[in-house]
Amino acid sequence: MMENLLIPPPPWVGRMDGTSSHHLRWHQAVTPLRDGAEPGACVFIGFSSDEGVERNKGRRGASRGPDALRSALSSMALAEPLRAYDAGTVAVTDNRLEAGQEALGAVVAATLDAGQFPVVLGGGHEVAFGTYLGLAQAAVRTPRKRVGILNLDAHFDLRSDPVPSSGTPFRQILEREHAAGTTLQYSVLGISQPSNTTALFDTARGYDVRYLLDDECSVSDRHRVAVFVSEFLSDVDLVYLTIDLDVLPAAVAPGVSAPAAYGVPAETIQFVCDAVAASGKLAVVDVAELNPSFDIDNRTARTAARFIHRIATKRIPIVG
């Protein structure tokens, strides 16, 4: 299955100022993933999918997100040399979302088992179930280690729809954990009250989901945000960080499936990313909902690339 859905990575190209370490940019550091790639490296994995967004009655275009993210990241300068690879892109075709999620899970698990750091480039937020499957299957996920998912998002994505979509992944995850007899902490920062029904808030309470509303995450709310993230990190051993770009204000992130009328400032999102990267618990990260068809001056892609850059360059590896 994975062989049929995983397509080779595109070339990384960008501005070239020189070939020494003092001139290094991402496109000069990233090479196609090869067998035997060293542990500790950052590995990019694309997930090209519109299927989940369409099932959730959103606007198509997120399938072009992975390459737009690569392009936005390519010319960003690296302060010091970094080992990075591109594993290619899992492409969802012919409505085969579930097969695509399984294929993504296999790539993420293999990356984790090789001791590397997977950075998944979406794709609609249906990417989350695939990323989770990879972490759940990896050797690093043992019965003794509690997994925490921190979702930076305007939406809970806890819908109970009979057909999986970009609105259902975290309910799917929590149900799978319950069926397996394991536990998982799901926390969300940036929830928009007008974008989530009372039924969804009730569902969140039923699953013991912790959350902060978007209007509790301004720059002046830094202490509140810091406490929320610190308490989340203290309760878990392994972190899966997922960034839905619709958590940002529409002026910063117009190129998403559902632009935010209010949103969480980029300063707050970067603060959270820095804290999680420095925790020594971050196992995997993904970025979702970039829709290049609606982006203006690549604002959304550039902002997302900045977050990816910060996480990949500041992450403290998991020990033990």
Automatic annotation (TrEMBL):
Molecular function per GO: agmatinase activity; formimidoylglutamase activity; manganese ion binding
SUPFAM superfamilies assigned to the protein according to its UniProt record, in alphabetical order: Arginase/deacetylase (SSF52768)
Origin: domain of life: Bacteria
Pathway given in the UniProt record: Amino-acid degradation; L-histidine degradation into L-glutamate; L-glutamate from N-formimidoyl-L-glutamate (hydrolase route): step 1/1
Record flagged with keyword Glycosyltransferase: no
Annotated residues for binding of Mn(2+) 1: 125, 153, 155, 157, 244, 246
UniProt KW Oxidoreductase keyword: no
Protein name as catalogued: Formimidoylglutamase
EC identifiers of the protein: 3.5.3.8
Keyword field: Histidine metabolism, Hydrolase, Manganese, Metal-binding
InterPro entries recorded: HutG, Ureohydrolase, Ureohydrolase_dom_sf, Ureohydrolase_Mn_BS
UniProt family annotation: Belongs to the arginase family.
Gene Ontology BP, a term: L-histidine catabolic process to glutamate and formate
Organism ancestry: Bacteria, Bacillati, Actinomycetota, Actinomycetes, Mycobacteriales
Pfam families assigned: Arginase (PF00491)
Enzyme class: hydrolase
